Fold each of these.
Amino acid sequence: MRGADPGSHGVVLVESREWLSRRPYHRMRVAAILLAQRSFAAECAQEGFEVRTLQGEAPMVQQLGEFAAQHGPLASTEWAEREMRSEFKPLVAEGVLRTVSHDGWLTHREDFAGCRRGKQWSMDSFYRAYRTRTGLLMDDAGEPIGGRLSFDTENRKSWSGKPAAPEPPRYEMTALRREVQREIESRFAQHPGELDLAAIPASLTECESLWTWAKQACLPHFGPFEDAMSLSSRGLFHTRMSPLMNLQRVEARRMVQDVLSMDLPIESKEGFIRQIVGWREFVRWVHLETDGFRDAWPSATSAGDGGFARWSGHVWKPAGATPRGVDGGARPRALGSEAPVPPAFWGAPSGLRCLDEVVASVWREGWSHHITRLMVLGNLATLLDVDARDLADWFWIAYMDAWDWVVEPNVMAMATYGAGGVMTTKPYVAGAAYIDRMSDYCSGCAFTPGGDCPVTPLYWAFLERHEPQLKSNPRLKLPLASMRKRPAERRDHDQRTFVHVREVLANGKPLVPANFLPLG
Ligand SMILES: Cc1cc2nc3c(=O)[nH]c(=O)nc-3n(C[C@H](O)[C@H](O)[C@H](O)COP(=O)(O)OP(=O)(O)OC[C@H]3O[C@@H](n4cnc5c(N)ncnc54)[C@H](O)[C@@H]3O)c2cc1C
Ligand code: SF4
């Protein structure tokens, strides 16, 4: 409660079951929110603020409206979440809820305004503009420290087990954790996912201890292994700070300051700072500017379930009716992809070890790192023409750090190309060779990456199917030319593989090499 005076200000928090169960969120996501909120309440009380927590089934807007009618107008910092802005719009319009600007963001609208290139926003230009304007990681002559603005090309090493990857800290089962555990197992029992309260930092001291761990154990090796994936370490050198940053438990600004003052290899220092002042801020601007892609695409009328009903066999029942004005988000389909999220994303074995391992880890932890999201989950969904909206809903449901402003651009624009090239120069798709090079998933898989693995034919089939939409893209000139050179029987096999894989996975069945399509 920076800048507020306990003598004149109080704190009102809302726990609405309607909001917490609007989608079938992972239990870890619900737990992270409740732990953060209740810890924050205790910290405010300790600082001398009077704290009121409203708890109930009703939507947040209703609970706050009733409270304000009794006690007078309230103020809130601006919401990054579009869904919250829609929900609270009537209270803001009535003057019951006043918004004050949020000082948690580092970049300005002008940094973003200048990064438009035709129909596209460029993260590189945005990042360059911010670094030039602020002098961040720049020397006295105005040149980037290390001689280059981005060390992206140094962030692509695979990991063979050395240096040893750190284990994330675990936390004591305090009274608060036991209380939240009991509550989730009773009031939120229908929510999917495993629950491991000891893995989520709650108090400010615990949040700080995760950041200390991240600085000491992760950041020295963060850069080189940023794109690596492994069965023996799910997180590798990733910091797991996103849930805390998005809940504002640890401030991005301070994290950047801390990293600047550390003695780190430049590819780690620049690589980490780029993720925060580059990607994190950039996607938030894209979401704001496009109104969550509603500027170009129609919206779904209500919150999606990301495939929950198809997988579980029963319809998701939220605790109450969604407030008026809240929709289900934009439904961009630049490539015309409209297949539903297959049950494999909910844990039905697909037979593809890369997919099954990452999905299992997500339902265990409510988290996985960036490359698993982009190059396993996003890649396979894109190759199978999965609908970007359905996939974004799945990510929103399954990940602890998911909020509309960050999950929608990452899924609907970056991972699937659903919104077209608004923020990336090409779809992020790859065959088995990439997964084999960057991970150890393929050893032990029933398929072999250079042989019968279906991911590579799926890649070629994707390029062929979407050639009309992609042929003017200069970055796809070479892959498209290679695709066209493939012999006719290979191309036919690629297309039949696509049809077969999609059908088997849509039915919730595993792919088995023995009954896989032979070539020709
Ligand atoms: C398909 C897909 C969905 C994603 N959904 C989310 C989401 O719901 N919430 C979320 O916070 N991030 C999301 N990301 C971005 C990124 O994967 C996560 O921020 C990161 O994996 C979080 O783990 P970490 O804290 O260990 O990150 P680290 O690898 O340690 O990176 C440090 C920080 O950089 C920021 N960051 C890095 N990349 C991005 C990015 N592309 N967008 C926004 N912030 C970024 C995050 O705040 C992260 O904590 C998504 C990426 C993809 C490809
Ligand atoms: S062989 Fe293919 S399906 Fe198996 S893990 Fe590797 S890329 Fe995935």
Amino acid sequence: MLSLDKLPAELSGSGDWLRIKELEQQQNSLLKSVICGFNQLLDLRDLGTGVHSTRLAEWAVRVARKLGLPEAGLYQIEVAALLHDIGKIGIPDAILKKEGKLTDAERDLMNKHPEYSWSILRLLPGLEKASLYALHHHESFDGAGYPAGLKGEEIPIGSRIVSVIDAYDAMISNRCYRRGLSHEEAVRRLLESGGTQFDPTVVQTFVEIAKEEVADVFAATGVAPAAVI
Ligand SMILES: [Fe+2]
């Protein structure tokens, strides 16, 4: 991606500089459109998140900020929160929508979706980190996850954040076959899995944010907290 930081001194203040700036703006705007289009594609295939996906991305950014991560890296986390499951496009409906238990072969294929997400997102200039976060969003803090079996802080921080928020979203969202869990129960399960499945610091940070903004959280689900039991 073009970067004004790397602009040669002789171009600064010239018409070339303005042209480069214009091209950079065009590229950024094209990238935003592609991200938005991918997000709609997920909705069309019914692969979107339970909670409105932009809200999910907003929480990811809030967690990242509260953890003190640099502002410059937040966009990659936001995109990963939106598009980490884009690779499910490559999984057959017979597996994605199967109601019963998956066979081992079906599970193996399903577990390929983070690699598929990575293979799509890495093609977009400027989304290198987001693609990496998507690749590792099913790693487990204790090393029992996939695809690489990374452990603890070997797992990129963006993946650790997406993993917690994605799990919370899955737990509180209503599905056609079950009602979502209450906020309290979802939080209890997250805390219980801190240190095994999830990064405990990320869980703690998310729980603090969710506690302060529980009404906001449930506003995004379209369900009142009292009704989600
Ligand atoms: Fe996933």
